[in-house]
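Input/output pair, single chain:
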Amino acid sequence: FLRNIINKNTIIKNLDLELKNLILIPVPSSKKRLKWRGFNQAEFLAENLSKNIKIKISKDLIRTKHKKAQAILTYLI
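Output:
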């Protein structure tokens, strides 16, 4: 489905970038959340986007702490 939304020509035209200079870096899930969910959605999206528009992907980041999900955090001013 990403092919219909994003393609190389759109990215180059709109952002004036060369794809060979881009690298996707998905944010890793914590071990606890990965075990609960069964997959890392950021990595899943990055891999599919990488395949569709031929951008390199790097999985070098390592999550060291488990944090609360942003969806349950309260907004403070």
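The beta strands are 23-24, 56-57. The chain has four helices and two strands.
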